[in-house]
Amino acid sequence: MTAATATQRTGAGSRRWGLPAGTFPAGLRRCAVPLALLVLWQASVGLGWISTRTIPSPSQILTAFWDLTVSGELAVHLLVSLGRVSAGLAIGVSAGTVCALIAGLSRRGEDALDALLQMLRTLPHLALVPLFILWFGIGETPKIALVALGTAFPIYLNLFAGIRTVDAKVVEAVSTLGLTRGELIAQVILPGALPAFLTGLRYALGVAWLSLVVGEQINASSGIGYLAMTAREFLRTDVIIVALIVYAILGLLADLIVRVIERRALVWRPAFIKE
Amino acid sequence: MSHTLSRIAASQSTIDKPVVSVRGLVRNFGNGNVLDGLSLDLQPGSFTALLGRSGCGKSTLLRTLAKLDPAPEGTVQLPEERAVVFQEPRLVPWMRVLRNVTLGLRRPDAEARGLAALAEVGLSHRARAWPLTLSGGEAQRAALARALVREPRLLLLDEPFAALDALTRMRMQGLVETLWRAHAPAVLLVTHDVDEALLLADRAVVMADGKIAADIPIPLARPRRHGDPGFIALRSRLLAELGVDEEHLAAREPQRTESRAIGVKPGGYGLPAGAAAAPSL
């Protein structure tokens, strides 16, 4: 939808400048500015206008990427990072979901949990790093705990709100159909809260990478963050940039996965039906 | 059809055990009684219209009969097989139409019955559709099928046509009459619309101040027409019971088809059923 609108706008624009809209394919027109910047970047570094200490050229970054890939170093660190994020996410999402179910489905659960979690939520979880190091040492535990803590709250908040905002009229109508409470929860309330849960999951994935970046830059001996930190000691800006790009790609992929899940799970929404 | 009609006639002539029996029902919402010692019997297979001004307690009564509201004082006897159709369709958006219809139906042939019910309301072709893609009339027909498939002995209709456009409303009224004749549940129709009550019901019950203010039989032959002398006479009587001065309305008569709920303020569309009386939690 957005892409289509953007293309139309570009088309109208090029007509205004006297260029027929069909001269270049739409994809190429949209890539033109980033490509031009890339060429400018490469030229600036190549001509010595920018020091490679500040930022290496795109070709140098590609070379570093290639070297790290061939040596297997990148794969090792990537797997370690992915492992940490997965473990942390699994714990955080589970904990957030369980708390949201308890608080969302019963008034007593809400009384017991909600105020406490709302208080903890306001604490920036990354500020807990020093405490986590004292508690859990410098191994894997503090890093996973950091991811888990960061991801539990977006899941809790969104799922709790989702459960509580399921259309009360629909629930009332369904309650006249003779469903048990378990069936009502499983078939009506939880599917109704799913869109909110998926929104929470997207937030959680963003927080997970953020927590990982912070966690891996402190006392790590492996992972993408470690790769970037050791590169700093050897002034390898190219490797640092590679690490940044890997983080960006991972974030994009994670978002893509949730979008695919949304598309499959929320087919009943008119926005998805029309496509 | 004719044998169904004679069966209804037979069930009404003999003094059956009522399918619904309400005695001394009291419901209090803090500032006065919404239901104030109300008593009402519904015979099997009868079609009763429940009329009254906004806030008279008719929606609260219907919600009590649907077991959506408690009955703290008084006795309420109800059949197990009950079904409700609300002003809004209230379908579950993430279940296809057929699944909505069969929801909670515990029998091996649920799907076949669901399809049969959808066929009866003329919605077979939409069985696999998502509810949010249905038109208002289609969604309300799906809600009717969801009620029908339960083979209710008591069918509660809470202003089911109020949110529909005039043409769709007329078709839905015809459909409800057909379905009632075919399945003969006891129907309680809450409505603001005197004409709708006279078109469909055998009996009009007018509520005021939490009690039954008038209980008027409607012995008109079917199909009924607005212009029939009997219809007009009963219409005057019902409007009088509702406290509407017909002479005063004479000037507005030509607008009758546009706004048929004369004299009784239509409850705000989009408000939950019973919102006038029941504070939503």
UniProtKB/TrEMBL annotation, chain A:
Compartment(s) of residence: Cell membrane
Superkingdom of source: Bacteria
Cross-referenced SUPFAM superfamilies: MetI-like (SSF161098)
InterPro entries: MetI-like (IPR000515), MetI-like_sf (IPR035906)
Cross-referenced PANTHER family: ALIPHATIC SULFONATES TRANSPORT PERMEASE PROTEIN SSUC-RELATED (PTHR30151:SF38), ALKANE SULFONATE ABC TRANSPORTER-RELATED, MEMBRANE SUBUNIT (PTHR30151)
Family: Belongs to the binding-protein-dependent transport system permease family.
Protein name: ABC transporter permease subunit
Organism for this UniProt entry: Azospirillum melinis
UniProt lineage: Bacteria, Pseudomonadati, Pseudomonadota, Alphaproteobacteria, Rhodospirillales
UniProtKB/TrEMBL annotation, chain B:
Protein name: ATP-binding cassette domain-containing protein
Keyword annotations: ATP-binding, Cell membrane, Membrane, Nucleotide-binding, Ribonucleoprotein, Ribosomal protein, Translocase, Transport
PANTHER family on file: ALIPHATIC SULFONATES IMPORT ATP-BINDING PROTEIN SSUB, TAURINE IMPORT ATP-BINDING PROTEIN-RELATED
Similarity comment text for this entry: Belongs to the ABC transporter superfamily.
Every ABC transporter domain range: 20-234
MF term (GO), any: ATP binding
GO cellular component, one term: ribosome
Keyword Zinc listed: no
Pfam families: ABC_tran
